[in-house]
Amino acid sequence: MKKEYVQDIADRLIEQIKSNTAPWQKPWEAGKSIDVLPINLNTGNPYRGMNLVNLMSVAEAKGFTDNRWITYKGAEKLGAQVRKGEKSTSVHYWKFSEEVALKDEDGKPVLDKDGKQVTVQMKLDKPRVFFANVFNAEQVEGLPPKEQVIKPLEEWQRHKRAEEILEASGVRIRHKPGDSAYYRPSTDEITLPIKEQFPTADNYYATALHELGHATGHPSRLNRDLSGGFGSVNYAKEELRAEMASLFIGQELQIGHDPGQHIAYLKSWVKVLEDDPKEIFRAARDADLISSYLLDLSQEQKIENTQTSDQDIEEIKQVFLLRQQNTDLDQSVKTLNKMGKKAGFTLALKPSGEELRAHFLKNSEAIDPYVHIHKDGSIGLISNIDSPMVMLGRPEAVLAVTSAINPFRDAVTISSEAKNFIKRVQEEELKLQTSDFSENFKNLQAELEKQFKDNGISSLVELKKNGNQESLKVSYVGEANNLHHYSSVINEKGFLSIAYNGVDSPSSNTGSVSKHLGDITDASFAYDDLSVNSQSHSEEVISRLRSYKENGLGDSPQTTWLNLSKVAQENGFFARISDNILPTHIGEEERELQPKFIINYADQEQINMDVNTLIFENGKAVTLQKNEEYEAIQVTSDPLTQAKNLLTLVNAELNMNAKSKNTEKTYIDVGFGDKEEAKQLGAKWDGKAKSWYVPAGADLTPFEKWKVITPEESQKEQVSKRNFINVPVEEKDEAKQLGARWDRVQKSWYIPDGLDSKLFDKWLEEKEEIQQSPVPAQIDLDNVAPAMKDLIKNVEQQEEVIERTEKTYLAVPYVEKDEAKQLGAKFDNDAKAWYVPAGVENAPFEKWLPHNQHQIDLPDTSKSIRPEDEFKAALMQAGLMVQGDPIMDGKMHRVPVEGDRKGQFSGSYKGFSDGRPAGYIRNFKTGLEEKWKSNSVSFNVVDTARMRAEAAQNRANNEKRLEMLYEKTAQQAQMVYSVAEVAQQHSYLDKKGIGINQVIKLVPDPEDLPPGCEVKIAKTWQEAKQWREDNATKGIKETILTKGDLLVPGYNAEGKLMMLQTINATGFKGYMKDAKKSGSFAAFGELQNGKPFLIAEGVATAITLHEQTKQPVVAAFDSGNLLNVARELREKYQESKIYLASDNDHISEAKNREMGKNGILNPGVEYALQAANEIQGFVLTPRFAKNDPGTDWNDLFQNQGREQFHEQMKSELSKAKVLEQTAQIAENKLTQHTEISRKLEDQKVIDRKQDQRESVKMKR
Asked: What region holds the DUF5710 domain (predicted)?
């Protein structure tokens, strides 16, 4: 494209943006037909994309009011003439394909049945651009006068089309008081103020459609980049697209255009266009796509008198107004509409007084039953023309209508859009003489009809759009009109895939439709059976649920299920969990990554909702609508987020976007004795706020007897009024049965209001003292089962640790830092957060404590996602297999990658959560190495401060916990090692050729352990195995050793014993639980600063090196710990030469090369080199013949003898000497060069001063 053309448009628009006169910056009043969008006078068609924006801009600049444009020759054809001296405006056209003659394999033309040449559209490798010159109608003489071609729409007509677009989009809309209007990509949800807050209904719809424009950027729609926060370049670019699209849509629907807050983006827009003039072309193209996408959602065509009678228009108007004015009626219409769509029918509505009469249409013909929808949402059912009307509530009507329309269902229903897609693809196939799509689709239809005949499951074929890509989506609908969680997708090439768990997966049997359906039939039918029969979750499922253990963060499938089932119970709907049944073709590796369980939900009438939750092995979950796709970042382990996502979807399902007068919960003060009465009236329990509330939209009159309160008041009153009792732990079940409740905050049992306190007299002995200061009863460890003692101690110690944490971190916004500083707060440069120093009272800093920030009405951070989820998505994309949340503590973590064998860790990452989250990712197997930065929204100042404070506090608490845990383990290790005896003989030592060493000892007899030692020692390996299995079942963590195994001590650089390694007779190595292995090592010989020493991987290698070289040697235990040990020792012994005696995994390297693998090929050598490079050390590597199984210096000594060992050691030391000398020469040269450069710079300074003196002399 011509550079001058692009620059000219960009320059003009920049000036117009600055003066608020760019096309999308000008407001247009609703309800008026203002023909401002440019049209081509030759064709009558409107201009699109950049041409549209360009011509509107030119019209603004030159003062044209006529929106018609025409070429010079076009004007001549109409008998008109361009005035002399008028300048044209350039427009451009892209050509992406061209029509070419179709030829056969021999190069001869292909003719159709009439003997004419067959032509096909061929895609160009590189699109070509063409230019044309046009004139505005005001520049041309002799043109006919402009006619009013667009008829103004009435208010109800334009609002009806807007409602159709919003409803058809599938995007959830949430209304709440306030002035926030935004789209949240993570939940695919729009938030708007309530309708009554807008000046006019047109303003409401214009705002809603503007946010819907943003929603088209979702991956399931047009898939744009929606990252970046307010003030960022990305945010400005996206807002530019939405504003331009709002202009186009506002003109089409005649709802007007209000530029709103565009002033906030002026500078950003100007900068974007100055940096990249072509961005305006891309923005116009996207805006055109947005408006086309949204306008296509409305099936209602413009109402014209020539096509629609006045009577029809009046009926359409009455139907729309009845729905607008009656929320319950509208909700029932949406429910029936949704049912009809799944069954392949359309719903026809006609007004009947203050009711609506409806019937379902199949191929434009009405079928039974007829229904009357009343203002209160109730439905009158007429089975056939001779039957009386039966009045039903919405739930009963849903079941009755489903049964009535079932006999009329077709096996396969194809939407009109899908039919157009099929016709277009088949026409193209006919020209190209191919039939991949046609054959597969024909076979697919036949199989779907057979499936319907055999199993009663019908199919709905719809067009699926993802950006510019189109395909067919086949959904499966059961006899109860329930939409299955599984679906099929077929693209224009006939390629089949399966959509399950929200993700398209290529079928293993794409060549055979019957086999493809076989891939999903079992799973789909099994799922259908569960849904239709409403089976309760079985004990087998619950048992499997419990079999998954909690991870380090306390997450598991069971904890997630308990959380969500409780949320369902508290909000008045039902939850049922079952196994997530997968298609049979999925491989084991992919199966492991899939969710393990699925939760289905039903309303109070036991009608299944199109909402479910998928639960993964690590306890993470994602809640979605059936057949909805999701991204990795939506999967979360946070209970509050899980609950919020569930309630959002369920609310959308139950309320169908209904607008109610009261859009917020109303909390009421209900005593325990009144809870049943309040519950029957419709009150709900808020588990988080610990208070009863009246749901949004409900009439408050029946609840007048109870005082309206805030959740905070409820909690304070509850604590102050509670009658606390002192219940020993062994009597808690008895107290619970009598009705006592547990206060998790005060950690004490209490008597709920309405219960007779005499029942609890035995625990009321210290009543007054407890009520003044409720303190949880001390647990008597003598009365607790021995296996639980450690657990209780650990919990108490951890709580104490948090209280004793050195710093209390604060969420202080930048503008309030001086206030915090004056009160005594300090700033932590590493954590980038303010904190209260130890010993300073927290009370003056209460408003900045992180947990209080949730009460702040934060600015919109709706486009933000959890950094952990976003980082994990990047890690998974790089092939790293991370269980649970990635640990973002600024430290390197090793994890497996795709293709690793059990026990392999070929990936590493490092994550930082402070400020803008960032990280480092490396896949040693593929060679990938990259830096990562969060693309999420830049958080507002309050949110950023809160996140930093929480991250810093969690880090400090975790470090304290780990420090305490490591210290405890170190004490236990010292107790065991102190009573152990030196290993005089052991089969492993014999096998490795190692003599007696004072460092290596044997695990002692359990009778020899000192008092207070909690390590358990089994007398045989069979006994140890049984103990470990029992502990795994009970969830108990403790170190279990086996008497007679080798005992190797692990010290830190300061000489403190931190952990113990054990080695059994077969060579199997184990470590103490909860020990600090990182940086710990076993030392053979005395380390002295300034004297050389060696670092090896294993103990046997280290001892052999020590015995043969007479030098100090340390064992790092494994290659993954080499770098950590090297760092610790370099810090302490800065003057020493350090040699890393690496293992040589030469056989593994040969296999890796043969298989064409990348990344880490020889871990022993490469990890040693990495450590040596960091600490300026030298690597000594043993060499082996191709078929020699040896890998380390001990193997070399054992297999090839002392002479070969010393020969290779001498050779490696010589290489190290050469490297040292080379490095010294390079260092000397660098020093010399630096000195010369310094002298030259000094001379330049002297010369400049001399020149200045001479200049001054000359002036004098």
From this structure: 665-706, 722-764, 807-850
